[in-house]
Structure formats: structure tokens, C-alpha cells
Amino acid sequence: MKSIFMLCTVLILVLLLGVPVSAQLLEDNFTAAAGTQLNTVGWTTSSGGGTNNLTISTPGLTFNGYALSGIGNAVTFANTGEDVYKSFSPVNSGSVYLSFMANISAAQTGDYFIALSPSASQTNYYARLHVKSTTGGYLVGISKSNEVSGGAKYGSTVFSLNTTYLYVVKYSFFTAAAADTLNDSLNV
Hints:
Layout: E1 8-10, E2 13-17, E3 23-28, E4 44-47, E5 55-57, E6 74-77, E7 83-85, E8 95-104, E9 111-116, E10 127-134, E11 137-143, E12 153-154, E13 164-172, E14 185-187
Antiparallel strand pairs: 1-6, 1-8, 2-3, 2-8, 4-7, 5-6, 8-13, 9-10, 10-11, 11-12, 13-14
């Protein structure tokens, strides 16, 4: 998770297996005490350990109408520092959903801050969510694979800084063998 903004609070990270039956693969409501480092409560450091360690903060976020809103704390991170990941059961067919709330206070030129990746490689991501600064706020973008040919694809909706939004990323497998960065579909 390389952040490109000065502060982003993430309350909940939920991965769901898609259509037609949903099975929860991972949920983290960040319920440990404020100040607890993520790498001490089930998250693994993949790089940057010791620099701007990711810690649980309060208060958590809320999003009107979202059932999982307001039930935990948050994670605040800077534009440099530690990258962490949390493993979940591998999936290679159907669709995987990543949903979370975020409140972004500043964005820069565009980098990812959260991703889905195969457990065997923390550098070859299946889906990465990006934000970049624009007049009046920021844009949200998405990319597949480790190397972003031509950069992330950004939407045209300008999101307001310092506002909580609910994000949902959907990765759909084209074949049941493994992720196929050319044919698998990605939506945000």
C-alpha cells in the first residue's frame, strides 16, 4: 500500500467472493486499541518496516446506509513508509470484491494505496486502486498487474477531499487457472 496522500483513514477492509453465493474471505474492523501497529495484529510487513508504521487510530469512519459503518477504528497513513498485507484463502474463479471506507485529505500525482495480489508475490498485483490530485479534489483510478502500461485508468468524477466514501473494487477471473491480466476484468 503505497499511499500518495498525506492522510487516508481506512476503517474496514472486507473481501467477498462473488456471484452467485457470497463467502467472506477476510474482514478487519481494526478493533485493537489506538496506537497498535498492524504488523502486531495479523498483518505482515512487506516493505518499509520501521518507517511510518501503519497503526490503528480513532475515530473510525462512518458512511450513511452502509451496514458495516461505525463498528471499528481506522488506519491512518502517510505518503511514505510501511507496506503491509493480510493473507486470505486463494481464489481463482468467479469474482473477488474489496470494499472499504476511506477519507482522503490530500493526493499527489497518482499512486496506488490499496491492492489485491496473489499470495505468492507481493509485487505482482491483480488490482490496484489509485488516487491523484485534480482541481477541486482527486480522481480515482484502477490498474491491473505490476507494470502499469500507460498508467492507471482514471474516472472523471472529482471526489472531495476530507469526505468519507465507500469504495468497492471487483476483480473477475476470465479463466479458472489463474489471474489473466489481459482478459480478467476489473471495476471500481
